[in-house]
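Project channel, design review

CF: Before we commit to the Blastopirellula marina DSM 3645 constructs, I'd like one complete example in the thread so the newer folks can see what an input/output pair looks like. Taking Regulatory protein GntR, HTH:GntR, C-terminal.
RD: sounds good, go ahead.
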Amino acid sequence: MCNLGVLSVLNWSLRLMATIHSLQETGSISGSLRMDIFTQILLAIFQGEFPPGARLKVQHVAAQFGVSSTPVREAFVELVGLGVIEMVPNRGATVSPFGVKEVREIYHIRRLLEVEAVRCACDCADLKPLQQIQQDTIALQSAYRDKDWGIRCLELDRLTHQAIEEASGVKRLATEINRYNRLVHMMRLLLRHQDKYLDPVLSEHLTFFEPLLRRDKEAAGQKMALHIDATCERVVEGIFSSDRAEN
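CF: and here is what came back for Regulatory protein GntR, HTH:GntR, C-terminal:
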């Protein structure tokens, strides 16, 4: 794992609070106690507070976060479903490894889901919302880079993928994408100097918008795959130092 200094931990904690608040306001995650505990455990795992192989006892985690055991058990179920922790007979919950290999596995699944979503979106009867997001993306590229520019980029990124999920018309597909997006949002909090990655994201979005809006499924799927793969490598670079990267 990357080393975390006191200032870095404080900075990431503030970003976590802002991200959770933003996601709750936009409906990306529930404001329930279960989801709050899920988020806190997930970030603690990603930051190395709960290292791979560590046993997580419901009572201990509940005491640490000052809650009852019920939301912790519910959060464990969600984390098991995402492969972040596993239930081992006679040992309870243990933390699964988190490294470059695991990040790439997460993005591999995300690529499969997002590619299928953009292909299905090509059949959507009304592509006007996506056309508007395309125009918003072009405008944001040339906008003045004030202190809020990065926040606007992240929000537009979320809206872009959400709009594609909705346009796909496949509810179960959108549900699975949202499950993986929870992992993606937490990994973003670990990125060092994440603002430098935002320009490529906007440019890559435009590459799949063009074939999507002309309803070219093959080309849209290929461009989405390239975007997700590139995002994966940016996350790997941003989280892990080169001398600690695992193959």
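RD: helpful, thanks. The chain has a mean pLDDT of 83.
CF: The first strand starts at residue 55 and ends at 56.
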